[in-house]
């Protein structure tokens, strides 16, 4: 069966201009050749430090940002060149939940109107039928129907994110892109929202592209995980495989920084040192070479491709080119 979403060689570069003449002084490599797929009913986690291009991937998939090149196939149709009108049927099947639930809710609309709006826009339900559908959606996300008449400021942060989730669900999407959906919430609320998302997927069978900088959050909800660094995917594998057998030095460092339940458990590698380099004119070769403890001469000049390192496990690192995994 073909994947629901197939992203091939996605690139998004921006020109950086400076000086009075606004000359091009550099190029931001926000996304630099990213490929992945998401199956029906699957959750793919996309993890990486802030500025690594995760959100740009999310926005490109939804066509909120135009990629510089690459293909984005939804149900086998390349949607990258489609006009607004041609996009319309696809818009229904892809929804997004943003990080900041307050900023993405119109403060002058009631929660019920916010959730019902997509139904009106797409001409699916009006009046009483819409009210009933919205009440159902409220119940699905754990809100009470009498809260439909309240305004966003009358809800807590977690409840506001539930409103956003209900709105995303309203059109019966096949893909929901979640861009850091719990990062702005209290830690005590995060698990509730994540568990709600998992529960909704069980009942509705849609796919998630789930983006976060927190590996623990991604691990909980994802079936597979892709690790991004400076606009590229450096490793992608089944969640269990990635945690048991991380091959990329960057993934190893990220995992080492996740608190382990057993304090005696062996740490895989020291936490990664230093900041992420600027995505403007990023490092040559392997972009991680400026921070990698295993760096070799070759890493500084040649860019390692994402290659198969095991079943469904791909990694972009010269150490995996026949020389095995770093110990
Ligand atoms: Fe480190 Fe080289 Fe592997 Fe990059 S390719 S992660 S620099 S060992
Ligand atoms: Mg972001």
Automatic annotation (TrEMBL):
<dbReference type="InterPro" id="IPR050319">
    <property type="entry name" value="ABC_transp_ATP-bind"/>
</dbReference>
<dbReference type="Pfam" id="PF00005">
    <property type="entry name" value="ABC_tran"/>
</dbReference>
<dbReference type="InterPro" id="IPR017871">
    <property type="entry name" value="ABC_transporter-like_CS"/>
</dbReference>
<dbReference type="InterPro" id="IPR003593">
    <property type="entry name" value="AAA+_ATPase"/>
</dbReference>
<dbReference type="InterPro" id="IPR013563">
    <property type="entry name" value="Oligopep_ABC_C"/>
</dbReference>
<keyword id="KW-0547">Nucleotide-binding</keyword>
<comment type="function">
    <text>Involved in beta-(1--&gt;2)glucan export. Transmembrane domains (TMD) form a pore in the inner membrane and the ATP-binding domain (NBD) is responsible for energy generation.</text>
</comment>
<keyword id="KW-0813">Transport</keyword>
<dbReference type="GO" id="GO:0005886">
    <property type="term" value="C:plasma membrane"/>
</dbReference>
<keyword id="KW-0067">ATP-binding</keyword>
<dbReference type="GO" id="GO:0015833">
    <property type="term" value="P:peptide transport"/>
</dbReference>
<comment type="similarity">
    <text>Belongs to the ABC transporter superfamily.</text>
</comment>
<dbReference type="GO" id="GO:0016887">
    <property type="term" value="F:ATP hydrolysis activity"/>
</dbReference>
<protein>
    <submittedName>
        <fullName>Dipeptide ABC transporter ATP-binding protein</fullName>
    </submittedName>
</protein>
<dbReference type="GO" id="GO:0005524">
    <property type="term" value="F:ATP binding"/>
</dbReference>
<dbReference type="InterPro" id="IPR027417">
    <property type="entry name" value="P-loop_NTPase"/>
</dbReference>
<dbReference type="GO" id="GO:0055085">
    <property type="term" value="P:transmembrane transport"/>
</dbReference>
<dbReference type="Pfam" id="PF08352">
    <property type="entry name" value="oligo_HPY"/>
</dbReference>
<feature type="domain" description="ABC transporter">
    <location>
        <begin position="5"/>
        <end position="255"/>
    </location>
</feature>
<dbReference type="InterPro" id="IPR003439">
    <property type="entry name" value="ABC_transporter-like_ATP-bd"/>
</dbReference>
């Amino acid at each position: 069966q073909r994947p629901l979403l197939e992203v091939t060689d996605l690139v998004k570069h921006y020109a950086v201009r400076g000086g009075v003449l606004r000359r091009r002084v550099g190029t931001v490599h926000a996304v630099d050749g990213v490929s992945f797929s998401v199956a029906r009913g699957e959750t793919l986690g996309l993890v990486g430090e802030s500025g690594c291009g995760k959100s740009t991937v999310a926005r490109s998939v939804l066509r909120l940002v135009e990629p510089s090149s690459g293909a984005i196939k939804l149900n086998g149709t390349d949607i990258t060149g489609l006009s607004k009108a041609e996009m319309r049927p696809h818009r229904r099947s892809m929804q997004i939940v943003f990080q900041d639930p307050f900023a993405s809710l119109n403060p002058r609309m009631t929660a019920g109107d916010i959730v019902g709006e997509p139904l009106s826009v797409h001409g699916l339900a009006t009046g009483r039928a819409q009210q009933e559908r919205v009440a159902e959606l409220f119940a699905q996300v754990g809100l009470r129907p009498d809260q439909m008449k309240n305004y966003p400021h009358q809800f807590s942060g977690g409840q506001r994110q539930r409103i956003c989730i209900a709105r995303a669900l309203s059109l019966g999407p096949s893909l929901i892109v979640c861009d850091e959906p719990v990062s702005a919430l209290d830690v005590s609320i995060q698990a509730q929202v994540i568990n709600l998302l998992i529960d909704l997927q069980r009942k509705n069978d849609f796919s998630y592209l789930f983006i976060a900088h927190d590996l623990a959050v991604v691990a909980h909800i994802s079936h597979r995980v892709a690790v991004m660094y400076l606009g590229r995917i450096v490793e992608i594998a089944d969640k269990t495989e990635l945690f048991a057998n991380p091959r990329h030095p960057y993934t190893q460092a990220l995992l080492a920084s996740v608190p382990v339940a057993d304090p005696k458990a062996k740490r895989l590698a020291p936490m990664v040192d230093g900041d992420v380099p600027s995505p403007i004119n990023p490092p040559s070769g392997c972009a991680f070479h400026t921070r990698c403890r295993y760096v070799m001469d070759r890493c500084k000049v040649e860019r390692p491709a994402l290659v198969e390192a095991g079943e469904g496990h791909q990694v972009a690192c010269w150490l995996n080119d026949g020389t095995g995994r770093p110990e």
